[in-house]
Design brief:
homodimer; alpha+beta; DNA-binding
Chain lengths: 115, 115
DNA sequence: ATAAAACTACGACGATCCTCGTACAATGGA
DNA sequence: TCCATTGTACGAGGATCGTCGTAGTTTTAT
């Protein structure tokens, strides 16, 4: 097989990331859950390792929204698509934002008794 | 005039505020601008003191979204409706979130040259 | 070559969202 | 009382969003 261009995923550069876009990306329950799981892991994870209450196409959609808004980066490895949070970029652009969102989500989950 | 019940505004209690709702409320450019202006002032401000690029009805809408998601509190004084950020509640629920959003917005405005 | 695994592209549906204009309500001052 | 100020309620239009199923692509293993 020749290399497939569609397998190279487009990411916004650091300068293109907007705080409104990041907040919007994180404001959906499914996507917030994805980011929490990604941030809790030590390395990148495949989309298939997420147990989400939505269909597979919807899962694809949510990962794309996160990527297009600069929250995660993704790349292919075999048939799998791996994701990780763009911690370095987000911390540089919006210091403390990611941590406080994740911390706030943790507190809320604790408070609602379903951490 | 007798007291009008419609003039008493409904606010979510602290326990009802959700991080997803707060993020959603802050993810709109107009609303983020409102909150930045509110946070930059020392006391509460009337809606009419905001110079926004939308109509008056749309302004009302955005203030309501902010209030219903627990970001601001509002009360009437005469014909004016005053607003202020629910700093104490937000800091208790999601420590550091408000500050990092505001700080990130400031940095972004600086970076884009229209602070 | 065949099949399985992982993910995507596309179109569709209903819900929500942002916006507006118009008409209305509440307050305070002349 | 009359009017100006301030904000609301309502309905509407158009855009975006979240969801899905189906069909298809890419890769790896057999």
């Amino acid at each position: 097989m020749t290399t497939n261009a569609a397998r190279v995923l487009a990411h916004p550069s650091r300068e293109e990331i907007r705080v409104e876009g990041v907040l919007h990306a994180l404001s959906d329950p499914v996507r917030l859950r994805i980011v929490r799981q990604l941030a809790g892991a030590t390395d990148e994870q495949a989309c298939s390792r997420f147990d989400l209450p939505v269909s597979k196409s919807t899962t694809t959609h949510h990962f794309r929204v996160l990527r297009e808004n600069g929250v995660i980066s993704q790349f292919y490895r075999g048939t799998a698509k791996l994701s990780c949070v763009r911690t370095e970029d987000l911390d540089a652009l919006f210091p403390g934002l990611l941590d406080s969102v994740l911390g706030g989500a943790d507190l809320q989950a604790e408070r609602l008794g379903q951490g």
